[in-house]
From TrEMBL:
Keyword set includes Metal-binding: yes
The reaction(s) this protein catalyses: 8-oxo-GTP + H2O = 8-oxo-GMP + diphosphate + H(+); 8-oxo-dGTP + H2O = 8-oxo-dGMP + diphosphate + H(+)
Species of provenance: Treponema peruense
Source domain of life: Bacteria
UniProt name for this protein: 8-oxo-dGTP diphosphatase
């Protein structure tokens, strides 16, 4: 049986929002595109809104589907879908209230390669970057 997870892609100019996971769990202490698991009965879009509200304390608008990948986690296939999101005020003028991350920041796509990024999100990286380049034009 497979599971579904979502990744939230917030873009601003030539940067993307990334978050540093708290030091718990298998991927603790690593950077990621914010996101999480889709719960039973939820659409991807509902999961995005819920996860961002829970983890950052703000409501987002969901945009385009950007990329997808499949990876194995603890013997289960996970379908990972990335969507563009639109966040209020970019967390700059008023800080987001983090519950599962120690920090967040806006970085260029080149910087992601220097961060200790979770492997599953790196599967999305090429398509997410390609999408970001296409909407910048």
């Amino acid at each position: 049986m497979s599971k579904t997870s979502i990744a939230c892609i917030a873009l601003f100019k030539d940067k993307v929002l990334v978050a540093h996971r708290n030091l718990v769990g298998q991927m603790g202490g690593r950077w990621e595109f914010p996101g999480g698991k889709v719960e039973a009965g939820e659409t991807d879009e509902q999961a995005i809104v819920r996860e961002f509200q829970e983890e950052f304390g703000v409501c987002v608008k969901v945009g385009d589907a950007v990329a997808s990948a499949v990876f194995a986690h603890n013997g289960t296939d996970v379908n990972l879908h990335a969507y563009r999101i639109f966040v209020p005020h970019r967390g700059i003028f008023r800080k987001y209230k983090l519950t599962e991350h120690s920090e967040y920041k806006w970085v260029t796509f080149d910087k992601i390669k220097e961060l200790n990024f979770v492997d599953s999100d790196m599967l999305l990286y090429p398509k997410v970057r390609e999408y970001a380049e296409s909407v910048k034009k």
